[in-house]
Amino acid sequence: MLIAAAVCPHPPLLLPQAAQGAAGEIAGLRAACERAVAGLAVGGADTVAVVGCGDADREHGPGSAGSLQDYGVPVRVGSGPPQLPLSLTVGRWLCERVGLRPDRYAEVAAAAATRECGRRGAELAAAADRVALLVMGDGSARNGEHAPGTADERAPGFDAAVARALAAADTAALERIAPELAADLMCGGRAAWQVLAGGAAGAGLRGDLLAYETPYGVGYFAALWT
């Protein structure tokens, strides 16, 4: 059963080594993410999994490593060959910051159907009596003229709706996110959030939105569900 979940974004800029001159602008978001993940560490879970989007649906073991080399950042998280996608690499880094040791890393295909995401979440929640999830995902990358993608007038409303859903631990609202719209808006977290919705359905969790920012035209959220 799912007893707690944290939601965080996964930009490489979250790491101070990558942020450099922008470190001050991202410091508040980083602190909010650390608060969210620390909330999982004190929850007394039997097992902790990190969920994030990647190229395919697959599982990675607790010792799996990741790298930000492809993003121009000479940082490796863990030892051994890098296997984790960006989302799980940043997730592992956040866990190490607060001393949390996940038991598994669940990669979900970014294009996975909503129903499949829900099934994956239910499986993760059923893995033990007390399960905690760290769910990694960015919002739209089309917020304003300085965004990575071409500005889209739908992006602010889309991200605001996600923020409301995270604040209220509203699993139904997360399930209603249309994959096609999320893809149009270059949203990097839709599938991972819908895994969370599947795992948290019926769990009676309460949400606390710790941060909602769009500093570089991308929606970033930090939340804790308990």
Can you offer a commentary on this structure?
This is Extradiol ring-cleavage dioxygenase class III enzyme subunit B domain-containing protein. The chain is α/β, with parallel strands linked by helices and 226 residues long. The chain has one domain: LigB-like (Protocatechuate 4,5-dioxygenase, Chain B, 3-Layer(aba) Sandwich), CATH 3.40.830. It is built from 8 helices and 9 strands. The strands form 2 sheets. Strands 3-6-2-7-1-9-8 form a 7-stranded mixed β-sheet, with helices on both faces. Strands 4-5 form a two-stranded antiparallel sheet. Helix 2 crosses helix 3 and helix 4 crosses helix 8. The radius of gyration is 16 Å and the shape is globular.
Mean pLDDT level: 95
Tell me the radius of gyration.
16 Å
Range of helix content: 25-40%
Any idea what the CATH architecture is?
3-Layer(aba) Sandwich
Residue ranges: pLDDT <50 for 5 or more in a row? none
The largest sheet is: 7 strands, mixed
Write a concise synopsis of the structure shown.
The chain is of the alpha/beta class and 226 residues long.
Tags for this entry?
37% helix, alpha/beta, two-stranded antiparallel ribbon, globular, 8 helices, 226 residues, Extradiol ring-cleavage dioxygenase class III enzyme subunit B domain-containing protein, 7-stranded mixed beta sheet, 9 strands
Secondary structure layout plus pairing:
Blueprint: E1 2-8, H1 16-19, H2 23-41, E2 47-54, E3 58-60, E4 66-67, E5 76-77, H3 86-98, E6 104-109, H4 114-125, E7 131-136, H5 155-168, H6 171-175, H7 179-184, H8 190-200, E8 207-213, E9 220-225
Parallel strand pairs: 1-7, 2-6, 2-7
Antiparallel strand pairs: 1-9, 3-6, 4-5, 8-9
Helix pairs in contact: 2-3, 4-8
